[in-house]
Amino acid sequence: MRRIPILRPLALAAVAVALVLAVPAPAQTPEEIQKAVSAAYEKYKDLKEGANADYIPALARVDPKLYGIALVTVDGKVYAAGDVKTEVSIQSISKVFTMAKVIEEQGLDAIPKTIGVDATGMRFNSIIAVELAKKALGGPEINPLVNPGAITATSMLKGATRDEIWKGLLAFYSDFAGRPLAVNAEVFKSESDTNQRNQAIGYLMHAYGFIKADPMRATDIYTEQCSVNVNAKDLATMAASLANGGKNPLTGKQVIQTGNVPGLLAVMVTAGLYDDSGKWYYRTGLPAKSGVGGGIIAVSPGKFGIAVISPPLDDAGNSVRAQKAITDISNALKANPLASTPR
Ligand code: GLU
Prior knowledge:
Beta-lactamase; binds glutamic acid; 343 residues; single chain; alpha+beta
């Protein structure tokens, strides 16, 4: 076909305009990111609000002064302030990664079909929520980030024996963290000795047909998964793997399929911070998950994962300093995925 000469400059101009429009807002420099992380650390270093969880006796013994922030970008840069080496038990943050393994093994539909992906509007270990889920007409109204759903998700993990299931799960968490993780034996024992309520939830979920396997084995593995030791850098790397399409940005390993990430983040939005999930999302727009050990992870998709560990919790069970520090850093880095700039 013969080209009409005038069209070529026009086409070039159109391409140039399209390129300008497509260029994303300039990313922050490494100095700016470190400045935001250090500023949040300093600002909340001396804050004394909140109290350690004590319904698991070993958690009450963790140093409340422990405070560390780590941020891992999708291009594998690590920013830190405070103590990012001391380990605490991962607690409920583990629920995200067990859910991820179930989806990897059984597909995205397995969770909504078996457990549900809606907020219960109840405490994380509510038994009333189980009763309502049983009666719900439209299907299960529970999710894998509250205890009944989490114990059910653990019961769905594939493996011939308890040992095989456990080893597979720990290896999976370790791939997210980018190093071999291990269990905090003191926390595992302490929670195993005092987890009668979770055992009751396990039995109830079995009685109502949600759990098909042995409910006590599922509750035991769930308790062990909550006892896995992590530091702030581990948690930030786990979050960054979710920010990076399921690929660990430090090791380069594709841990889960990219297509499975949005569903996980959606449930973190719905139920990641217990009863304050809505308040958190309103302020930050970031999928996040907290644990009673004092950690919170948050994900800015395509940008970074961030984690803060600080054991004192507020009344909803979320780390006080972690919420404040992540909110400040996210604002400073313009990381809210819901925000846009008018053209
Ligand atoms: N292992 C804890 C429990 O089941 C986890 C709670 C949490 O971190 O929210 O009670």
